Amino acid sequence: MKRVWVEKYRPKTLDEVVGHKEIVSRLKAYVGSGNMPHLMFAGPAGTGKTTCAIALAREMFGEHWQNNFHELNASDERGIDVVRNTIKNFARTAPLGEGEFKIIFLDEADALTSDAQAALRRTMEKYTNTCRFILSCNFSSKIIDPIQSRCAVFRFRPLNREEVMEYIGRIAKAEEIDITDDGHEALLYVARGDLRKAVNVFQVSAALGEKVDSEIVYKTSATGRPENISEMMQLALSGKFLEAREKLDELLIEFGLSGEDVIRQMHRAIFDLEVSEEGKVRLIETIGEIEFRLIEGSNSRIQLESLLANLAIIGKQLVR
After folding, report:
1. 252-280 average pLDDT score
2. Distance between CA atoms of residues 170 and 63, nearest Å
3. Do 21 and 125 belong together in one domain?
4. CB of 68 within 8 A of CB of 62?
């Protein structure tokens, strides 16, 4: 069975990390000094937070890095008992080998309850001589201020197209996979700066044949073609509601999209439509209202058809 490419091609050192040059240089400075404060990695999914944490531990502790590195996912166990037992027991013991401290990597730390975060704050303060914490989160605002003030905060941004294409090209060469130009563009559209998603979609697409093009990428990722989304919206805005509804059926049935998937792609397509700025404002307001209804549990088919009907009304008003 083939290994998952995300793990197979995960960078082993900080020099191999794609993008984030400023962050990597700061982390390498910690490695050079042999010391580091508590760290917080904040940013969207798939941007290299876990990779940087593991690469930092590898370079800090050498080949026996796993003895002094402990990874926990706070979304699995997010209560105060985890902090009082698992984390505290690891933090209070002395490091092994030549390491001066150990590292606890707490992934998805923003999922910790407020009580658990309060207990973690005290643990970080009490055992700082033997243990350093690296907290990874998507939303730093969900981490309490006392913990943030104890950490050096690193902000990770979505990777740009050149960085994603470089990494995908590296894997394509190693696996001898032929990927077309439109396949590259499709992966960039699907990933939106999430390198992990790009690699996973690429692997699934490559399993269907030796050549990866846009059609395979969109089908395997359950993503509608951007031009199909734009065409559906243009039909609705021009008053052709029934034709737009047929396009919606095609997206829901052929591509297997959910209501939330369609909404997200429609939001991205707004900025490429040839409508006035006022029209774009009204479209975003309408799409935001429909998305809220879907999240609250409304019927996705009815809400999406309601959205198309609203677009038809807005289109007529913009023509006047």
Report:
1. 88
2. 25
3. yes
4. no
